[in-house]
Each structure stands twice: as structure tokens, then as C-alpha cells.
């Protein structure tokens, strides 16, 4: 059996339990200190690093770890470029020979102190959800392949956290997630997006359990959608770009006219994403965001969830152009339309992007208020 010293995120028992694939509460755990070392935050990362020097690194010493436990831990920590090294720690008034995950020398830049409590509050939930998917690939995918998937794994984990907060959905039937039982899940496809298959039963409205059913779900991320509107000039900015969905359907017009849109990245708020995407896709600075809707795109088969806004912006003639991130192979052209022309396209069925139709109809209802607010401010 093995013992390991943990000084960082794996001191969080729910995360350690996921990584080990078993109940970490049953482990033999004691508080410990690695003398002459200190724990630091890592610049631009959410996890800490340990380095020689200082007044001692506090952590936990875990006894009774199997070789499989260690391999699972190596797989998880390998994604953050750490490896095991032998050390001696102080615990219960004794010196213990053990091992600890050290970062590769020179890999990370220190960024002040690191707090476990602060990390749990800010990143603990999505980190646990991310580890659940990450560890599901243990034994079937290489660490290098999983490393390449991490940004989307973490974005999907952030979506799971978002699903548990600020949920205003009205459900008059009174049923909730606790009425779904006997759930088993497989993941036949996982890359940039994933496909999950669920076998489950659910409570019927007559109180009986349904028969076992299988449902396939396309697992995406939460997304932000922004329709930029200039209430002074009374016009909007739309973007056009190639979209593989319409192309795969056989649409002869896979270049789609749509609002600004983008996924919510790891531990990022919808509001921050909205401003970031406006800059990336159209070079715009938004002065305000108006809530339009927060809704699922296609709840019968997809987890994708939209946070839709109208963004107040200055839209002079010269604002249009071609934008997008080169590293994401984006080639995005922007266009200006008068409000009347936008609504005419909606009426003629020329707008085939559902969030844009929704945002345009919302704008038609609230346009006068937005224009009055600008006149009042001037």
C-alpha cells in the first residue's frame, strides 16, 4: 500500500473521491506539514503549486492507497504537468516517508498565496464535475488526448454548475430530477462535443414508473447570444459565417446570418462571455446588456443552453468588417441593418436562426423603452 501527501485541490474530499473512484471518506487521512516548503497560487490557473522554502506547506497525508489509486492520481495530475517525488512530512508528532506531486521546474509562475477555502468556493463545484468526465477516460484514452479535451470538459462542467443556480423554470407538474431513477450512462462519442446515452425510468403523471427507456443526448456547453443594437441610429449589427449544422442538413446556404454568439468557458459568467464575444467577433464594446431569455435550444436531445441578450452599442457606418479568432479558424463578416429591415426579414422568413428571431421579437417589444432611455440620458 502507498501513502501520499496532498497540499492543493485534492484536499477537497469530493474531488479526491471522484479521482480515486471510491469513497474517499473511508480513507485513512491525517493533517500533515511538509517543512521548508510553501504553497503558491499559479498565475492564470486555478490550481496551486508547491516550492521549496517558507514556513511549511499544510496538507493531508493519506494512507492505504492502492497501486490503482496511484495510477488514477497520476492520470489526473498528469493533466496539470505534475509528477510524484519522495518527501518526508510531519504528522501526529512523527516523521513519515511519503510522496507528493511536484510541478515540473519552471513550468508555472507564482502568483501569491493560495487558499483551499477560496478555491472550493470559487472553483470547487465545476472542478468536481470536470473530474467526473476526465476520470471516465482513465484506461481508455491517453493523458495527451484528454489534455486536448480539457477546455471543453471544463466548459461542460461549468454548464452543470450553472444548471443548479438561478433556475427560474416553471414546472407546474411538480416533478423534478429526483423523479428520474435507475440511471445508467454511456458515452459512445467524445471529442469537442460529446454524445451520451442514458438508460433510465421516470415518474409518470399517474404516479407509476415508466418502463426503461434509452435517450441519446448531444452534450454541448452553455452559450451566450448577443444582438447588438444602437438605439440612436435604430439599427442592429449581424454577423455571417459558415455553419456546419446547416451544411450537414443539406442546406444550400450554410453561411448563416446570426447574432454574436459563443460558448461560456471554464468558470466564466454569461455577462463576461457576452462582452468577450462582442470584441472577438465584431470588434464591439457593449455599453449595456438587456436580458432577452435564458433557455434550452432543443431540450429533447441537447444540453445546449442559451443566454440571450440585446447589447447596447454604438454602431456607426465604419464598424463593420471581418473578424474572428485565427486559432479557431473563424472568418466572420459583420453587416448593419435598420430595425425595419431586420423585422421585414423576420416576417419574410429570411432569418433562419432561432435565437435571432427571438431577440428581434423581444427588441420589437422593448425598442421604444431603449430609445427613450437614451433620450433621457442625453
From TrEMBL:
Record InterPro entries: AIG2-like (IPR045038), AIG2-like_dom (IPR009288), GGCT-like (IPR013024), GGCT-like_sf (IPR036568), NDP_pyrophosphatase (IPR004385), NUDIX_hydrolase-like_dom_sf (IPR015797), NUDIX_hydrolase_CS (IPR020084), NUDIX_hydrolase_dom (IPR000086)
Motif (Nudix box): 262-284
Entry keyword set: Hydrolase, Magnesium, Metal-binding, Transferase
Cofactor dependency: Mg(2+)
Stretches assigned to the Nudix hydrolase domain: 219-359
Pfam families recorded: GGACT (PF06094), NUDIX (PF00293)
PROSITE patterns noted in UniProt: NUDIX, NUDIX_BOX
Keyword Transferase: yes
Zinc-finger as UniProt keyword: no
Entry's Gene Ontology molecular function annotations: hydrolase activity, acting on acid anhydrides, in phosphorus-containing anhydrides; metal ion binding; transferase activity
Record-linked SUPFAM superfamilies: Gamma-glutamyl cyclotransferase-like, Nudix
Protein name, per record: Putative gamma-glutamylcyclotransferase
Organism whose genome encodes this protein: Shimia abyssi
Amino acid at each position: 500500500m502507498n501513502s501520499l501527501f496532498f497540499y492543493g485541490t485534492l484536499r477537497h474530499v469530493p474531488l479526491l473521491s471522484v479521482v480515486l473512484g471510491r469513497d474517499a471518506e473511508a480513507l485513512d487521512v491525517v493533517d500533515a506539514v511538509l517543512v521548508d516548503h510553501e504553497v503558491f497560487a499559479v498565475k492564470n490557473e486555478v490550481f496551486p503549486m508547491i516550492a521549496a522554502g517558507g514556513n511549511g506547506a499544510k496538507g493531508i497525508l493519506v494512507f492505504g492507497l492502492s497501486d490503482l489509486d496511484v495510477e488514477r492520481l497520476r492520470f489526473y495530475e498528469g493533466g496539470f504537468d505534475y509528477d510524484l517525488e519522495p518527501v518526508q512530512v510531519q504528522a501526529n508528532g512523527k516523521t513519515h516517508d511519503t510522496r507528493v506531486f511536484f510541478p515540473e521546474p519552471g513550468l508555472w509562475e507564482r502568483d501569491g498565496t493560495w487558499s483551499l477555502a477560496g478555491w472550493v468556493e470559487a472553483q470547487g463545484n465545476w472542478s468536481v464535475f470536470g473530474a467526473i468526465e476526465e476520470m471516465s477516460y482513465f484506461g481508455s484514452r491517453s493523458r495527451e488526448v484528454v489534455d486536448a479535451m480539457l477546455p471543453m470538459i471544463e466548459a461542460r462542467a461549468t454548464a452543470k454548475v450553472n444548471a443548479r443556480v438561478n433556475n427560474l423554470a416553471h414546472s407546474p407538474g411538480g416533478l423534478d430530477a429526483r423523479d428520474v431513477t435507475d440511471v445508467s450512462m454511456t458515452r459512445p462519442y467524445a471529442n469537442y462535443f460529446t454524445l451520451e446515452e442514458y438508460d433510465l425510468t421516470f415518474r409518470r403523471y399517474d404516479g407509476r414508473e415508466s418502463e426503461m427507456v434509452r435517450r441519446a443526448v448531444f452534450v454541448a456547453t452553455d452559450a451566450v447570444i448577443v444582438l447588438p443594437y444602437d438605439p440612436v441610429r435604430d439599427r442592429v449589427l449581424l454577423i455571417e459565417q459558415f455553419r456546419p449544422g446547416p451544411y450537414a442538413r443539406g442546406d444550400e446556404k450554410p453561411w448563416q446570418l446570426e447574432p454574436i454568439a459563443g460558448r461560456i468557458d471554464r468558470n466564466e459568467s454569461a455577462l463576461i462571455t457576452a462582452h468577450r464575444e462582442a470584441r472577438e467577433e465584431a470588434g464591439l464594446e457593449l455599453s449595456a446588456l438587456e436580458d432577452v431569455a435564458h433557455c434550452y435550444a432543443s431540450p429533447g436531445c441537447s444540453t445546449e443552453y442559451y443566454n440571450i441578450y440585446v447589447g447596447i452599442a454604438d454602431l456607426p457606418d465604419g464598424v463593420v468588417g471581418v473578424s474572428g479568432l485565427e486559432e479557431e479558424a473563424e472568418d466572420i463578416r459583420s453587416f448593419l441593418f435598420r430595425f425595419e429591415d431586420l423585422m421585414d426579414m423576420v416576417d419574410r422568413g429570411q432569418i433562419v436562426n432561432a435565437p435571432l428571431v427571438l431577440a428581434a421579437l423581444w427588441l420589437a417589444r422593448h425598442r421604444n423603452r431603449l430609445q427613450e432611455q437614451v433620450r433621457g440620458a442625453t
